[in-house]
């Protein structure tokens, strides 16, 4: 049982007790019955009036609650529709709790509505500012309705992207503006159109960052850069021409220094000054026709060398040998020089490769020549090791370079429809001939050294060996390598020589003392050739046959002939 019901029962019991007490009092007093009825009726009316008043107040409260619930429910339904939220559920609540919950819910949703509307106004204001700067279309959203959370998120994302795009365009505008100002300064140009004045002169924040304006900015910058590039090309052509004419006309350095500023910058005033200098030099060129043509001929000869022109190709340009110096002859030489320069630039890699091969080949020949030089062993700085390493590297790199050049030359001959000549012959044939000449030179040097060695041995056999100073001092008692073998060999030869009859005039006047001195000289003779011959099995039988008793010569000259096979 509820406590309110208990309280109601107690109230009824209390009223009953009160009436019973009144009854007892009335009995004790002796109030008649009719008066008792009157007094009881007064009590009843009083109690009934009090209860009716209380009931009326509570009923009024009920009605107010119902009215509040109904009005709040209507407002809540409208807000749920505007805010795109689910309707309010009122099941399982009393009237008082329902009214309280609805009112609280209504306050929360009114606050949400106010916040969304306020956020929408803020975003709309930001959108209008960005649209004014970028000349874009505002975001599509209904300003008369309350936006949903998804719409607000989409609006914020759109404005964030738009802000980033605005910052990017502004950065691009600032960069392009700076470049435009630099180009205009270099071109000595002032803003002509209203757009150029807006770009250069107006405040950066006031410039409309529309796509069309950014495109126009890029186009303007491209036009200015094209004109700047064109001016630079014109100025560079003027500078090249001026440099050539200075060299050909042998202009003094003092006059050249007066143009030093204009030879670096390419502004409008620089271009005008360069053009005026070209006109002046052209007039001076006409007055010094012979010197100019001879200077051009020197350049033509230089490019002939770089392009490896043969004598026939050079003679084909007949104006080169003309002595009648005219304007027409000058024009022919200038045209030939331009053609040669273009030809060289088009095939620079090939010509530089051939030149690199020639330089490497010259260095290789120098190193090969040093191989036969005995003085190279007397170095103290490690030059011998460096030279050998360099020579080995060249032996490896030269064939690789020749192979690469062969591929390039094949392409060149296909393009030019003629053979690539160096010194009047095909380059690869020229390379093969150089290798063949090197091989023949090596063989010739080897034969000369062998002949010289044989002649020295023959001379030593006839006249004895000259005393040589050893390169290093030997320790006492250290035997010379091969000394025992050489001593036995020469003792055998000396026995054969002593057995010969001395019948030639060359033997007249030779005393035993001279013979003894020759014997001592023979003991010091370098036996390289003889020891090599003795180590050769193919020659050993012939050597024994030549020095046998039956074939011993009767003179020193005959003996020297016999000794040649051994050497």
UniProtKB/TrEMBL annotation:
Coiled coil: 235-284
Record GO biological process: mitotic spindle midzone assembly
One GO MF term attached to the UniProt entry: microtubule binding
Keyword Coiled coil annotated: yes
Keyword set, alphabetical order: Coiled coil
Database matches in Gene3D superfamilies: 1.20.58.1520
One Pfam assignment: MAP65_ASE1
InterPro entries reported in the protein's UniProt record: MAP65_Ase1_PRC1
GO CC terms in record: cytoplasm; mitotic spindle midzone
Superkingdom of the source species: Eukaryota
Protein name according to UniProt: Protein regulator of cytokinesis 1
């Amino acid at each position: 049982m509820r406590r309110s019901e208990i309280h109601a029962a107690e109230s009824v019991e209390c009223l009953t007790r009160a009436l019973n007490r009144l009854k007892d009092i009335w009995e004790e007093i002796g109030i008649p019955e009719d008066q008792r009825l009157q007094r009881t009726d007064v009590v009843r009316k009083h109690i009934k009036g009090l209860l009716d008043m209380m009931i009326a107040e509570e009923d009024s409260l009920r009605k107010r609650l119902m009215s509040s619930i109904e009005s709040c429910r209507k407002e809540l339904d409208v807000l749920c529709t505007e805010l795109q939220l689910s309707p309010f559920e009122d099941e399982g609540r009393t009237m008082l709790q329902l009214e309280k919950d609805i009112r609280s819910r209504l306050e929360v949703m009114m606050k949400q509505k106010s916040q969304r509307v306020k956020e929408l106004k803020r975003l709309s204001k930001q959108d209008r500012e960005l649209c004014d700067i970028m000349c874009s279309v505002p975001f599509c959203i209904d300003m008369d309705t309350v936006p949903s959370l998804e719409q607000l998120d989409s609006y914020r994302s759109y404005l964030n992207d738009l802000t980033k795009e605005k910052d990017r365009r502004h950065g691009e505008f600032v960069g392009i503006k700076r470049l435009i100002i630099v180009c205009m300064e270099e071109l000595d140009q002032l803003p002509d159109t209203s757009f150029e004045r807006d770009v250069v002169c107006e405040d950066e924040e006031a410039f409309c960052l529309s796509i069309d304006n950014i495109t126009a900015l890029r186009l303007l910058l491209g036009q200015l850069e094209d004109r700047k590039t064109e001016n630079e090309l014109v100025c560079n052509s003027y500078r090249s021409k001026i440099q050539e004419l200075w060299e050909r006309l042998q202009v003094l350095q003092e006059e050249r220094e007066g143009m030093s500023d204009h030879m670096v910058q390419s502004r409008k005033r620089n271009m005008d000054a360069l053009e005026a200098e070209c006109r002046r030099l052209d007039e001076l060129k006409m007055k010094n026709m012979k010197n100019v043509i001879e200077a051009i001929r020197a350049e033509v000869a230089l490019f002939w060398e770089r392009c490896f022109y043969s004598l026939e190709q050079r003679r084909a340009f007949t104006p080169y040998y003309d002595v009648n110096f005219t304007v027409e002859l000058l024009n022919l030489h200038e045209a030939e020089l331009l053609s040669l320069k273009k030809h060289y630039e088009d095939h620079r890699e090939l010509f530089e490769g051939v030149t690199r091969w020639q330089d490497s080949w010259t260095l290789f020949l120098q190193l090969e020549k040093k191989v036969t030089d005995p003085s190279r062993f007397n170095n103290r700085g490690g030059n011998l090791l460096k030279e050998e390493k360099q020579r080995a590297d060249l032996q490896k790199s030269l064939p690789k370079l020749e192979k690469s050049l062969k591929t390039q030359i094949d392409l060149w001959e296909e393009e030019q429809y003629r053979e690539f000549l160096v010194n009047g012959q095909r380059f690869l044939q020229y390379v093969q001939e150089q290798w063949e000449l090197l091989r023949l030179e090596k063989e010739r040097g080897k034969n000369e050294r062998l002949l010289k060695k044989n002649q020295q041995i023959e001379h030593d056999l006839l006249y004895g060996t000259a005393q040589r100073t050893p390169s290093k001092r030997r320790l006492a008692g250290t035997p010379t390598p091969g000394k025992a073998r050489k001593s036995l060999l020469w003792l055998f030869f000396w026995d054969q020589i002593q057995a010969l009859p001395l019948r030639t005039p060359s033997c007249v006047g030779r005393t035993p003392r001279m013979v003894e001195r020759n014997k001592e000289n023979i003991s010091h003779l370098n036996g390289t050739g003889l020891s090599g011959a003795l180590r050769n099995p193919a020659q050993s039988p012939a050597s024994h046959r030549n020095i046998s008793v039956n074939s011993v010569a009767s003179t020193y000259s005959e003996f020297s002939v016999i000794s040649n096979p051994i050497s």
